[in-house]
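Quick review question:
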């Protein structure tokens, strides 16, 4: 007979507690039993169940392993009990993301007990999780033959078919589940995926938005909407995207070329544009507030009007601190609320004390920098029809500078940069400034410059629906757009943000969810989420983020600008007829003022092909052209050697603006030997291609880009403001790597993503060999695939490759290849040897 405290009695009590939903108590009783009798298979089995029920995955895994080890082979139920232990182990491994182990455990279960339905279904699910859709499909189809009513298997089969890009076959299972109203949320997500695969992005977005409204606290529909929207923006034709956004009364932000007459920082006196009041609602958080106010003092601006601090029901200590601060700073005004009203209402209280034509709503956990008000003001000049402007940040949702979303699909919050890191970030942003302030769909409320007249006309911030500061600026942004006003993001302005320093994460998440539900109700989820995604995917902001990421990764130190413009001297035709002509901007690195043998040959072949040549020679020698240059180019520009090809191209375009009226504009340089056989055929391919942008070959180092030794523009590309603005923004930098990573690496992005133009690659790396996508970023086709390029009709060899392989068997290989492809090996030797001497001298 069992007693209450013997091992069997303890085991029975534990089982009763487990059945009653008290796993922690059950676990404690089972440990007592183990202490008295030692580990047995049954006790370990129960301990694993109790640990799993309590959520102690590691403990459950341990006890399942012990139960398997202690299974007695002479037990008549050995196979059955061992199967259950393996199934339990598989389940706990799956929960921990140890998917390979879970699959192995489920397979062992089925080997011991082939009719174990739970293991069979779990195995199909685990196959999907391990990205093995073919195995999942095979397993689900086999099981559905004998379990046609198993809804989990229907879902597995549908998911597997969708992953295998067989969406039409998935519809039968989705219809079956829909008719029975089984797991409608998951079915809806899969229906969206079917529409996505069928390129019906608009329908997928409508369905995903409906799921977001029906399941506002679920992350899955929101992640899916964002994913489909990003794919739609990237792959759909521009007119189709514009039609979709027009239907939602949302603009598609366009690239805005930087004006030549207005400096980036804008007018710098309050008399010119009116003073700007800064309003900061405060609810405790004294430490971050102190840092915020110090940053404002350090960045004191002539545009700064009154600093208005609104004490929103802070503690006694914070109230006293704020009073003392006001006494020390006479241009500060302090207001108090009797009780905490929330950010929006506190901001409105501060606004009632402001008479300025523009104001900044600023969170108390921010850090501003030098020139911040000037930068925001330049993005939103007075009487410009711009309602609001905001800066970039480390943590401001769609205005975040780094990765926008975290692994869970929420808006990412990057650590607050401090000291030298923050200063470096701001300097990098100023260096990256390429276009005018970005058009925006939403402005984040952590720091927003607001036009007071427009604010009042729109009825101000809605402090009834959004009293505590989440959603109120999104709402005002959409109302401003609906009234015909614009929004801007100042991409050269960075305001650091600690994000929610006065709120705990749970409270912040709750307010965010409530705001999202309110925005869905007012604007529909489809319109609001489309606005949010458009804000994230703003072409200029994406461009800035990607350049900043490359700059930070590849150039840890800030690149140095050359201290003055390059001196230039022109000879030849001073006013050549360029309109309607095929024109080549040819840059030669000529430190001693001479043209090398294959450079002369290349220029001769370009002129024979009908190009009018502008030769720019970057030199350290006196600015006198060599005698042969006049016979090889209609215009010769001798230029002080700085800024590489990019600076030379910029200067030529600025000196001869008629170049933009050319029929075709070819950019090339002397970093290649040639042309060899195939040059005429290559030019013919370019002529026959309808693409307005062309280039010879590509690279995936740092960013997918085209190599700039030979590329060109024609037609729409020559008139595009994004391309013109980017080339005009090039600066002469002292470091060659900086020029490459800032300019060459992003030419393709500008042409394809910002200008939206097709760029034709004549010799893409992917077609030259079987190099897979994991290895391609480390490949330079002109070095690693030079034979394949020559055999494909590429009529050049990279000079740098030849210099690095200038002697012995390596040199014989490429010299022989030059001869085989119609080139002159001796001319190549002379060119490479001269080139090596020039670089040795440098």
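Suggested answer, residue by residue:
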């Amino acid at each position: 007979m069992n007693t209450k405290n013997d091992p069997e009695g303890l085991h029975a009590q534990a089982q009763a507690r487990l059945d009653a939903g008290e796993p922690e108590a059950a676990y404690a009783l089972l440990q007592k039993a183990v202490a008295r009798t030692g580990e047995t298979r049954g006790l370990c089995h129960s301990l694993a169940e109790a640990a799993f029920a309590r959520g102690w995955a590691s403990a459950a895994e341990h006890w399942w392993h012990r139960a398997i080890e202690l299974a007695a082979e002479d037990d008549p139920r050995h196979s059955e009990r061992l199967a259950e232990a393996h199934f339990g182990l598989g389940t706990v491994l799956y929960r921990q993301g140890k998917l390979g182990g879970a699959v192995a455990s489920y397979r062992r279960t089925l080997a011991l007990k082939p009719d174990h339905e739970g293991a069979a279904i779990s195995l199909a699910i685990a196959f999907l999780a391990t990205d093995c859709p073919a195995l999942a499909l095979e397993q689900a189809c086999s099981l559905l033959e004998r379990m046609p009513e198993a809804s989990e298997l229907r879902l597995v089969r549908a998911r597997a078919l969708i992953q295998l890009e067989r969406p039409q076959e998935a519809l039968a299972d989705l219809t079956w589940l829909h008719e029975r109203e089984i797991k409608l949320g998951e079915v809806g997500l899969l229906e969206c995926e079917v529409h996505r695969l069928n390129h019906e992005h608009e329908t997928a977005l409508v369905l995903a938005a409906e799921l977001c409204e029906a399941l506002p606290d679920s992350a899955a529909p929101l992640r899916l909407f964002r994913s489909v929207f990003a794919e739609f923006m990237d792959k759909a034709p521009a007119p189709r995207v514009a039609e979709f956004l027009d239907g939602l009364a949302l603009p598609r932000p366009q690239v805005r070329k930087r004006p030549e007459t207005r400096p980036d920082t804008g007018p710098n006196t309050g008399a010119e544009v009116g003073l700007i009041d800064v309003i900061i609602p405060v609810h405790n958080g004294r430490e971050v507030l102190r840092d915020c106010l110090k940053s404002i003092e350090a960045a004191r601006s002539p545009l700064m009007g009154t600093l208005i601090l609104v004490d929103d029901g802070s503690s006694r200590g914070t109230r006293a601190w704020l009073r003392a601060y006001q006494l020390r700073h006479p241009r500060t005004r302090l207001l108090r609320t009797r009780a905490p009203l929330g950010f929006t209402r506190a901001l409105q209280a501060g606004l009632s004390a402001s008479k300025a034509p523009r104001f900044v709503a600023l969170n108390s956990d921010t850090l501003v920098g030098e020139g911040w008000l000037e930068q925001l003001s330049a993005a939103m000049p007075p009487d410009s029809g711009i309602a609001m402007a905001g800066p970039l940040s480390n943590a401001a949702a769609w205005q975040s500078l780094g990765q926008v979303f975290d692994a869970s699909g929420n808006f990412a919050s990057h650590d607050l940069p401090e000291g030298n890191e923050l200063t470096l970030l701001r300097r990098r942003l100023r260096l990256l400034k390429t276009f005018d302030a970005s058009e925006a769909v939403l402005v984040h409320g952590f720091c927003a410059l607001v036009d007071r007249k427009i604010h009042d006309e729109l009825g101000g911030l809605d402090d009834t629906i959004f009293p505590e500061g989440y959603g109120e600026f999104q709402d005002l942004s959409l109302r401003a757009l609906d009234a015909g006003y614009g929004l801007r993001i100042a991409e050269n302005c960075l305001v650091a943000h600690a994000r929610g320093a006065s709120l705990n994460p749970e409270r912040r998440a709750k307010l965010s969810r409530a705001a999202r539900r309110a925005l869905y109700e007012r604007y529909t989820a489809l319109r609001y989420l489309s606005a949010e995604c458009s804000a994230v995917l703003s072409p200029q902001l994406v461009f800035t983020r990607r350049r900043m990421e490359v700059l930070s990764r590849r150039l840890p130190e800030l690149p140095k600008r050359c201290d003055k413009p390059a001196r230039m001297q022109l000879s030849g035709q001073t006013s050549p007829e360029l309109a309607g002509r095929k024109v080549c901007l040819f840059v030669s690195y000529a430190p001693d003022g001479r043209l090398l043998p294959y450079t002369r040959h290349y220029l001769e072949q370009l002129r024979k092909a009908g190009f009018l040549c502008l030769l720019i020679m970057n030199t350290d020698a006196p600015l006198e052209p060599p005698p042969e240059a006049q016979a090889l180019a209609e215009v010769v520009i001798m230029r002080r050697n700085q800024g590489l090809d990019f600076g030379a191209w910029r200067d030529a375009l600025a000196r001869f603006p008629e170049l933009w009226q050319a029929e075709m504009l070819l950019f090339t340089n002397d970093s290649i030997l040639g042309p060899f056989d195939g040059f005429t055929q290559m030019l013919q391919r370019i002529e026959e291609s309808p693409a307005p942008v062309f280039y010879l070959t590509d690279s995936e180092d740092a960013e997918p880009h085209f190599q700039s030794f030979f590329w060109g523009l024609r037609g729409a590309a020559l008139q595009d403001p994004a391309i013109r603005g980017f080339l005009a923004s090039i600066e002469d930098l002292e470091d060659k790597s900086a020029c490459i990573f800032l300019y060459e690496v992003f030419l393709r992005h500008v042409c394809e993503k910002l200008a939206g133009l097709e760029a034709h690659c004549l010799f893409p790396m992917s077609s030259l060999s079987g190099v897979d996508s994991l290895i391609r970023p480390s490949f330079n086709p002109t070095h690693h695939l030079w034979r394949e390029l020559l055999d494909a009709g590429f009529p050049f060899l990279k000079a740098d490759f030849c210099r690095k392989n200038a002697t012995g068997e390596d040199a014989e290989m490429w010299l022989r290849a030059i001869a085989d492809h119609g080139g002159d090996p001796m001319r190549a030797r002379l060119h490479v040897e001269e080139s090596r001497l020039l670089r040795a001298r440098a």
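Why it works: Residues 505-523 form the longest helix (19 residues). Confidence is low (pLDDT under 50) at residues 261-267.
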